[in-house]
Write a structure and sequence with these properties.
Elements (H helix, E strand, L loop, with lengths): L3 E5 L4 H12 L4 E5 L14 E4 L5 H7 L3 E6 L11 H22 L3 E5 L27 H19 L4 E6 L1 E3 L8 H10 L5 E2 L3 E6 H14 L5 E4 L2 E4 H12 L6 E2 L2 H18 L7 H7 L8 H7 L6 H14 L4
Parallel strand pairs: 1-2, 1-4, 2-3, 4-5, 5-6, 6-10, 7-9, 8-12
Antiparallel strand pairs: 9-11
Helix pairs in contact: 1-6, 2-3, 3-4, 7-11
Length: about 325
């Protein structure tokens, strides 16, 4: 019987891109699909959907039967949530559950999608690396904290004999950003002229297709227990707007906002959201993250894995085209 590759998060941005790269390589894919998930990113693809949930361990054990490789790309990615415990349940407990199921099923390789948000970052523009010192106390917001704890869980499973490689994507951009992600929302707001001013920060951008290919390269070339930053170019937000202006012909926002008043406004918004249960207009975690330039060095993945480095301008252009074609802008 031909073995399958199991992908979690397959309906999402990075996961759907991984699925497409696997299919290009002629792989058979079984995709974890939660009840009620938007499956638009899988439409027309030769994929076996598997109904299950990271909170239902038995569905994971059964789903991994007959598979030999797991890509665990699923995560609850939000800058604000009214129920933080649910985020930890999915990101930390769900990760432990599927890795335990992978160990039980004797899989030959696991690629775990972490985040550069779990890594150390000097914050002064010096790029962080896989080995920059970091602690849980450095994590801003529940998403980063939950992913940090999930990464520690993944490392524990390596200690138990699970052949697992960790990848830490930076900020992918491109097609299939269905929700969209916070970075995708910045692009959509730019296209819809909803961004008269901005709070400058720094991001490491990578084409989502390169990020997905990096996962597959990690399966084939990555060393068990090692981490690999999947990134490309470090850019300030103002530089990203400059590229978007070149691509679209739209004017980039010129008003740069001061940090402290926006931080105070975010605290106020967070307090209101705690009462109303509605998402804040200014997420506190997003503002706190903006205080540090999230620059990272992906040279290890380029050197050891052969991570592709598509020009960021091309990635942004494809993102713009996809958002426009799909009615976001």
């Amino acid at each position: 019987m031909k073995m399958k590759t199991f992908v979690t998060g397959a309906t999402g941005f990075i996961g759907a891109s991984i699925v497409r790269e696997l299919l290009k390589d002629g792989r058979e894919v079984r995709a974890l699909v939660r009840a009620g998930s938007d499956t638009a990113n899988l439409n027309g693809l030769d994929v076996e959907p598997w109904r299950g949930d990271l909170r239902d361990r038995s569905s994971l054990v059964q789903g991994l039967k007959g598979c030999d490789v797991l890509y665990h790309a699923a995560a609850d990615y939000r800058l604000w949530t009214r129920t933080p415990q649910e985020m930890y349940r999915i990101n930390v407990e769900g990760t432990s559950a599927i890795l335990e199921a992978a160990l039980e099923n004797g899989l030959s390789k696991v690629v775990y999608t972490s985040s550069v948000g779990t890594l150390g970052n000097p914050g002064d523009g010096t790029p962080g690396t896989e080995t920059t010192p970091v602690t849980l106390a450095d994590m801003v917001g529940h998403y980063k904290k939950s992913k940090f704890l999930a990464e520690r869980a993944a490392e524990r499973f390596v200690g138990q004999g699970l052949p697992l490689v960790i990848v830490n994507p930076s900020t992918p951009v491109g097609p299939l950003d269905i929700k969209p992600t916070p970075t995708g929302k910045i692009i959509v707001d730019f296209l819809n002229r909803r961004m008269p001013a901005y709070l400058d920060t720094g991001l490491n951008i990578i084409a989502v297709e390169d990020c997905a290919r990096g996962h597959i390269l990690a399966e084939h070339k990555g060393c068990i227990g090692e981490k690999y930053i999947l990134g490309n170019a470090d850019l300030t937000l103002s530089a990203i707007f400059g590229l978007l202006a070149e691509i679209t012909g739209l004017a980039a926002p010129r008003v740069r906002l001061p940090y402290l008043p926006i931080l105070l406004a975010a605290y106020l918004n967070e307090g209101i959201s705690a009462v109303t249960g509605k998402e804040p207009l200014i997420p506190l975690a997003g503002v706190q993250m903006a205080a540090k330039f999230m620059f990272f060095d992906s040279s290890k993945a380029v050197r050891d894995l052969g991570l592709p480095q598509t020009p960021v301008r091309d990635a942004l252009k494809r993102a713009v085209e996809w958002f426009r074609t799909n009615g976001y802008a």
